[in-house]
Amino acid sequence: MFLNFYKLREQPFGVTPDPRYLYFSPGHREALASLFYGIETGRGFLSLIAQPGMGKTTLLFQLLQRWKGYVHSAFLFQTQCDSRELIRYLLDDLGLKSDGEDIVRMHSELNEFLYRETKAGRRVVVFIDEAQNLSDTVLETVRLLSDFEAPDKKLLQIILAGQPELEERLSRPRLAQLRQRIAIQSRLEALSAGEVIRYVGHRLEVAGYEGTGLFTPGALALIAERSRGIPRLINNICFNALSQGCARQEKQIDSDLVKEAARDLSMDIHVPQPRMAQRQSFTHAAQGPRSLAESAYHWIKDSLMRRRLFQTSAIVLMLCGMAIYVGARSGSGTLRQQGARHLNSESAATVTTAGSGQTRVQSDAARVENSAAQPISQNSPARNPVGSFVYVVQPQDTLRDLCLSTLGRYDSTVVSEIRGLNPGLKNPEHLHAGQEIRLPTSSTK
Q: What is the tens place of the pLDDT at every residue in 259-281?
């Protein structure tokens, strides 16, 4: 076991939904705040949609922990059931005895319980996880539970959590009544490359790791690429990489260990597009020339524009075309020469030539690391070769902790680079929660 080898108190990359390990990305904070507000204001039905492995169950536990002592809650996981079984599971989780046979009697017992709790000043909240597995008949039963209400308030709050299939099903005409009753819909999106760095650092800190730079910057960039920003996949890669590092007696996890861990988990870089997206493309193509053009535009945007080589080629072709056009009209060859200069400068952004004449192409890990950077204005002093990403400051964050967790070092050079990346930041040493700052993903020595 690698806990002693890396001096960890506990497993940092486990698969159980422990609220202590919840990383509050901007998406997680927004979803948690929306659900909290929905319960507080008695909105009735709420929903949480997320891809598998995004941590929606952990988020629900965190929400439940924040309401502990103020609500009477039930957490339902058994979604492969019929309507009678669902009501029986609900009563059992609320601590009510039921024979589970007479559904009318079970509804009566539930109604009496809700009135007692409301009279005592307590809210009743039901969490239904993996709700996409519920049949349409059971979802209709869930909708009918919202009929338990007093003249001025809902007696029962219901949170439906599930995968994107749940959102798709709720959009069907048959479930229109349930869809209309959902007052707040929250989503969890995949983590960005910069957030992956913070996510890994957060879990290591909770697990008791006191060192710095356990994962190299290249390893973290590769983890972001192979996991596609999904926390569960990040955990699997990190766990396997630490296991292999311990077996090899490696004190630091580099990109080679991450590559081997990802390969063992069969995580391919190129993920096929969902069939739904392919069907939509064919549907747009059948609607007419305008839809076909829009489909082609979106395909180019999603499939090609993310590749640095294509971006460079597109810019070069555009500049050359403009040069030829203007040159033909003015009879001047000046703009053709400018287009050639742009060709050389843009090509140098992707490929660099060594003094021996050999060509060195930028590595995959470096491309992913640099992809965390956001577009920067031409007039901004932050235009430099160091990759960067935008980070939303969380409570109790300090500049020193951020630099140590992302760069593994904190000195005057790093502070100077951060000042250059954030020209509007007056005092980097005083950060406040919610503030957005740009941090480098690597630093010059």
A: 999 999 987 554 444 433 333 43
Vertex 428: Cα angle to 425 and 429 (nearest 5): 150
Rounded to two decimals, the pTM is 0.58
Looking at CATH, the fold of the domain delimited by 26-188 is given as: Rossmann fold (3.40.50)
Handedness of CA 332, 337, 338, 342 (dihedral sign): positive
DSSP string computed for 200-247: HHHHHHHTT--SS-SB-HHHHHHHHHHHTT-HHHHHHHHHHHHHHHHH
CA–CA dist 224, 222 (Å, integer)? 5
Q: Determine contact, residues 257/244, Cβ cutoff 8 Å.
A: yes
Q: Where are the domains of the chain?
A: 26-188, 193-264, 275-361, 373-440
Span 373-440: which CATH code? 3.10.350.10
Residue with tokens 């993310």: 306
Question: Which of the four CATH numbers 3.30.1450, 1.10.8, 1.10.3470, 3.40.50 does domain 193-264 have?
Answer: 1.10.8
CB 57 within 8 A of CB 21: no
For range 44-72, the mean pLDDT = 87
Give the tens place of pLDDT for each residue, 76-114.
988 889 999 999 999 998 888 777 667 888 888 898 899
The Cα 148–Cα 153 span in angstroms is 9
| Residue 164 confidence (pLDDT) | 94
For residue range 389-428, list pLDDT tens digits in order. Answer: 667 676 667 888 778 766 677 888 888 888 888 888 878 7
Q: What is the Cα gyration radius of the chain?
A: 27
Classify each residue of 127-148 as buried b or exposed e, where b means 16 or more C-beta atoms within 10 Å of its C-beta: bbbbbbbbeeebbebbbebbeb
